Amino acid sequence: MKNTLIALLAFAFTIAIGDHVPWETFWYASGTQFPFAWDSVDGATKYKWENYSPVKKVVMARGETQQNQAIVTVLTGHNVLSVCACADIEGEEQCSELSFSTDETVATVDTQAKGWWVFGVIGAPGPIEPNT
Amino acid sequence: MLIKEVTIKFPPSASPDVVGYKLYYVPQGQTLDYNSPFIDLGDPAIDAASGKVEVAINELPNFQAADNVFSIGVTAVDDAGNESEMSTADVTLDFTAPDAPGPLEIVVN
Fold it and tell me: Does domain B7-93 have CATH number 3.90.180.10?
């Protein structure tokens, strides 16, 4: 039997490093990192998160934490984040369904209910230092 | 005649799927963009001490440049052919050695 824990997602704007565009796409240089945060769930012993590419249709990264946030590395292309809450029930780990960042019923942007994703673009080299 | 080496350094892109870099260049005052002349730098080595990419401009093949002040730009390229934003700088290139000193004269007293 699966738990019906629902994790609420919240994007941490205070450490945002990308430009916000109206359709809830956040542009980041791939390889950079950003905080992916969610509300704590009572009784959860850990959270499992995934970074999914809807274009490639693959999970590009996966992790777990006991905190209510993870530092996620942006990969090139679309990054859809999801998280589920897990608990030990009668000695067996059981997890909720994944909640997706593109699902406006659970995702928020700046405390407003909105779906979002991150688009990773290739990062520019650093500043050039000429030595002439 | 000895021509001084002109080098540029830059921190590499942080993106994990970078496969190379391009160096764009135009005389200062002209528009530097993705249509400008460029040289494919390939995947240059990163200096272990500085953590930066170092390129000797005057050793690049096909670098069509004479003495001038140039606007240059470097982009990172990923395995799909996407290019990053351009990091830019102005550099003064002087490949012309000064005139040699005049004939030596030995004066014997």
Answer: no
Closest Cβ opposite residue A132 in set B14, B82, B91: B91
Instruction: Delimit the domains of chain A by residue range.
Output: 9-13+23-121
> Is residue A93 a contact partner of residue A86, using CB atoms and an 8 Å limit?
yes
Residue A131: how many other CB atoms lie within 10 Å: 13
With an 8 Å Cβ cutoff, is B83 touching chain A? yes
| Residue B88 near residue A126 (C-beta atoms within 8 A) | no
pLDDT (tens digit, 9 = 90+) per residue, A29-82? 888 888 899 999 999 999 999 999 888 888 988 999 999 999 998 988 889 999
**What is the tens place of the pLDDT at every residue in B10-61?**
999 989 889 999 999 888 889 999 999 888 899 988 989 999 999 888 777 6
ipTM value greater than 0.95: no
Q: Is CATH 3.40.50.1360 the classification given to domain A9-13+23-121?
A: no
Among A12, A28, A32, A126, CA closest to A77? A28
- List chain B residues with CB under 8 Å of A129: 8-10, 52, 89
Stretch 46-75 of chain B: residues touching chain A, C-beta under 8 Å: 52-53, 72, 74-75
